[in-house]
UniProtKB/TrEMBL annotation:
Entries under Gene3D superfamilies matching the protein: 3.40.630.30
Top-rank taxon, per record: Bacteria
UniProt-recorded name of the protein: BioF2-like acetyltransferase domain-containing protein
Pfam families cross-referenced by the UniProt entry: Acetyltransf_6
Residue span(s) of domain BioF2-like acetyltransferase: 160-310
Organism encoding this protein: Euzebya pacifica
TM spans (from-to): none
Amino acid sequence: MNGTRLREVLTPAPPAEWSAVAAADPRTLVSQTPAATRAAARAWGAADGSRLYVFLDGTRAVLPGVRIGLGGAARLASQPAAWGFGGLIADRSLRAGHLAAVLDDLRHRGPAQVHLRPNPLDASLWQEAADGLPVVRPARAGVVDLRDGWERVRDDAFNKGTRRLIRRAEREGVEVRCSATDDDLDAFLLLLRTSVTRWARRDGEVPAVAHLRRSIRDPRRRLQRLRDAIGPSFRLYLASLGDRTVSGALVLQGTNAHYTRGAMDIDAVGNSGATHLLQATAIEAAARAGCAHYHMGDSAAGSGLEAFKRGLGAVPVPYASYRLERLPLSRLEAVARGTARTLFVRTPGPTGPDAKAGASA
């Protein structure tokens, strides 16, 4: 176990070494790369809080993240809300001892609060190393395994209902494009606004408050900065029926792909299968580009959203986010959120079927 002890910690992580580690780890996601993290820091008005860990056995690992705030109350988010997964990437396979050493460093030499949202595929390792740490929330992420190629996913992983809806969308003339122009970004944000209104009504929330929260989380300039920072890894898919854009999905594609945001006009989509064709197109592109996995984000067990993802071959993977803190910042945040919810959330009324296009980073 001595090999898992730390030899050196550098913060922020030197970009060249970080890039080398990201390239060596087969599970790296775009959100864990230097370019995406720098974009997150700029978007949040924060600093690069990444940390390079060098172990006695020669393993190098990077914790991507942004540092929010100054001094004794600073927080490290790996990664910030709605910015994708963080956690560790490494140039060799990690053991629980490596993670334990990192957690010990963060506990004693890190900021006042650290939020960790690791790659769901590393969940078992984190669970072993983080025993006793407060779990922010348990979750289930849908992940499609692409390692056997697109044809295998299409023929064996997609269920019959999904394949039927894809054929229907093709017959009805649904067209899917991948573009990242400002005009198409605006079209996606319009779909997102439509979806936010629907989600707010479903959850009994005042729509204006939901739109305010979404505008803070996903302002146009933040998505533009991410697009400009990661270039071709920013893949925005839009499905059109006639001359109307009806569904959209934002995928961050690198060694692996991550579907981070989705939205649709549920009335315009109807039973056309447009959203199924949209996702199938994105999954095919990721598989043909050599991605090992297509991450589809979180969904509740037994929900319509999880069923939608299962139909596309996604397997639910339980995982958890963790928190370390030396000051009771989370308690204060919980009180503030509870007060806001009491003021702005109404008792839900009867609702129809839940939308199936939403995803969260």
